[in-house]
């Protein structure tokens, strides 16, 4: 059975803007692409779906996220610097992992995203082996592809410094709480790798790429060299990927110099961690000298611009627009809403701040869109040969945008010019313009609504969970984290001198 999806405009990417375009889909793959009338004649019995008002393009890949279902601001967690914000995260109500993944998967699909990277935030470390399969099932039921990585940390869980000395410096009434936060997870490295292996065996789908299981020593400062090396070795053995948070804040950069007298990237090189298997999220504080090394080692990097603004981490502008950079929402979009289009727009503007020599931002729009497509697909799922483009042989992952709505009621019919369509989209599109989304030949969103799961029912279940939350306990946790914050600020402020 062949389906034909057609539109008045298309951005097949890497090709140029097309008019009256169509793709034929069979068995989850694109089998033909090109002129609409030609495909209609070639497949006279095919089911047809589309319209002249639409723009057809590949689905986006969200290269770094946490699948928390609801933005942290919506759950009462104030934005702060990362080092103070992370302790505060424990004060958000726990949403069961299936509901969180299903709901977040739906929100991302409605944003035109067809594949996401999920860095798991466990409700408890002990419960993580049980949480992961439920979370994976939530994404599967929603229909979005997921590169799933359970996290592991084994040091510096409270501060990236001598934790005993830090705790001793605190007022006595804060010390017991701080000591709890400074305790690493109750896993050995072997037990963690065994968990990844178990998930890999049960869920990794190397054929259709619906689920990839990856490994995540969660961030350089939180992980021993032994943990990072064991993770890299496992990923290489399994032909999968490693995802880490890296150089998100200036204090993480300073930690590396204080610990090894060299940059974090140099240190990762020295322990053999850099390679084309590695994805580094954030990378706000990368040293300029390390750029070439990262390129040589073909390390993937993810730009998380909203998150970096909200947590006051900074603005990376130097390394971008190269083919090893991807885009990720980090579950922390500017409007707390998982809008990938707006994230792209923000990143597009911010990335170019320090590039006044370039003639026009608009001229780079097509190259920029590819970051959210081909580059993000490769950096999130590795080179599968199937994702991030729209041409014969590729997976049928695509979005239909209501281009009439993007253009606005005032626009004459011949506006914008074809060459200006990519920039026009980047200037004006948002998730409300995403009308239909297909993943692997399966419709997940039609007319702006999720058709794989009952979104209202899932939202209702989440609302019930939140209504039943223990307000007293959460208030106590928030109070404890707020009490710690000035001491954490003071510790790191001293590093800046
Ligand atoms: Zn993150």
List the helices and strands and how they pair.
Blueprint: E1 3-10, E2 18-26, E3 29-35, H1 36-42, E4 47-58, E5 60-65, H2 82-89, H3 97-109, E6 113-119, H4 128-142, E7 145-149, E8 151-152, H5 163-168, H6 172-181, H7 189-203, E9 211-213, E10 216-217, H8 225-238, E11 242-246, H9 250-260, H10 264-270, E12 278-282, H11 291-296, E13 300-303, H12 305-310, E14 325-327, H13 340-351, H14 365-381, E15 398-402, H15 403-407, H16 421-428, E16 434-439, E17 442-446, E18 449-450, H17 455-467, H18 471-495
Parallel strand pairs: 1-4, 5-6, 6-7, 7-9, 8-10, 11-12, 12-13, 13-14
Antiparallel strand pairs: 1-2, 2-3, 4-15, 15-16, 16-17, 17-18
This protein binds zinc ion.
Strand content: 15-25%
**pLDDT below 50 for ≥5 consecutive residues: which ranges?**
none
Q: Give the strand tally.
A: 18
Physical arrangement of strands within the biggest beta sheet: 3-2-1-4-15-16-17-18
Which value, in Å, is the CA radius of gyration? 23 Å
Principal-axes geometry comes out as globular
Q: Count of helical segments?
A: 18
Distance between the termini: 67 Å
Q: Can you name the CATH architecture of the largest domain?
A: Alpha-Beta Barrel
CATH topology of the largest domain: TIM Barrel
User: How would you characterize the largest beta sheet?
Assistant: 8 strands, mixed
Domains, number: 2
CATH H-level superfamily of the largest domain: Metal-dependent hydrolases
Structural class: alpha/beta
Mean pLDDT: 94
Helix content: 25-40%
CATH class of the largest domain: Alpha Beta
Bound small molecules, by name, code or SMILES, are: zinc ion
